[in-house]
Amino acid sequence: MATFRRTYLETEFKKLNDKLSEHVDLYLIGGGAMSFQNLKVATKDIDVVLRSTKEFELTRNALLSLEYFVPCIRGAYVEMNASAILENADGFRWDLFVQVVCNGLQLSESMAKRSIELFTLKNVSVYMLAPEDIFVFKSVTSRDRDREDMYMLFTRGLDFDIIRNEIIWQNEHDRNFAWIAFFFDGLEEFADRYKISHPVISELHDLAYQDMLAQMLIERLKGGHTIFEELSQDLDSGDVKKVLKSLVKKGIIIQAAESKFSLNDLS
């Protein structure tokens, strides 16, 4: 698969600008952002998050008018659950997301505030996420080069307090537990491959375990189990109590009595 340098990306942004009928903000979260930080010589595609459906439709329609088309996709690209994947005759690809990547990881206000404005044209402003946030997004995707990119970001120096706080925020504000499994799987794969040890990795492992346990409890509630003893069977009762309390706080489940629970139909 061909790779494309920063100058190619800039040209495509200018073409997009000329086709857009209204202004849009584009947030770069992957290899494209790393190219603009001089962390990569070239990239195979560009991952972009847009903050509204309207901006997404404007961008998609403009790219289609530039003779981009929908390619055949499989594997890791499917798992990313992009709102649209478009490719041109050169093989250059745009992965477009609306606010969320991999069914749960959001472009938060903190991420947007940490981002750096690369340039602004008449109809498009392009922002590059902070290295810490690119690292987080890379953790939830599973393409071959993503772990290499994580290592490159790591060697340049990362503030793991930012990473920890962002993941905790994401966990507290998300009602979908799928993404954190992708996140920790990616983080653990990165740490194992490059022999990386860091206290935050252990801390986030515990967070991922709690989310896995939460999903298990929700599935048991869906199966008709409502009593604490049934829900905690074969599990650590202390961990179950902690997770149930969190699920009640989020409004995902309802505590009907001291030891009886049910799913919230409005969740």
Pick out its properties.
two-stranded antiparallel sheet, 267 residues, 6-stranded mixed β-sheet
> What fraction, in percent, of the residue positions are helical?
40-55%
Q: Report strand order across the widest sheet.
A: 5-6-4-2-10-9
Radius of gyration: 20 Å
What's the total count of β strands? 12
On the 0 to 100 scale, the average pLDDT is: 88
- Estimated share of beta-strand residues: 15-25%
Kindly name the structural category.
Answer: alpha+beta
Give the helices and strands as they follow along the chain: EHEHEEHHEEEEHEEHHHHHHHEE
Could you tell me how far the N terminus lies from the C terminus, measured between alpha carbons in angstroms?
A: 43 Å
The main pleated sheet reads as:
6 strands, mixed
Q: Count the DSSP helices.
A: 12
Anisotropy-based shape = globular
Low-pLDDT stretches are none
Give structural notes:
There is one protein chain. Strand 7 (about 100) and strand 8 form a beta hairpin. Helix 6 crosses helix 8 (about 160-175) and helix 6 (about 130-140) crosses helix 9 (about 180-195). The chain has helices spanning about 5-20, 30-35, 55-65, 75-80, 110-115, 130-140, 145-155, 160-175, 180-195, 200-220, 230, 235-250, and strands spanning about 5, 25-30, 40-45, 45-50, 85, 95-100, 100, 105, 115-120, 125-130, 255, 260-265. The radius of gyration is 20 Å and the shape is globular. The chain is α+β, with helices and mostly antiparallel strands and about 270 residues long. The strands form 4 sheets. It has a 6-stranded mixed beta sheet. The N and C termini lie far apart (about 45 Å). The chain has 12 helices and 12 strands.
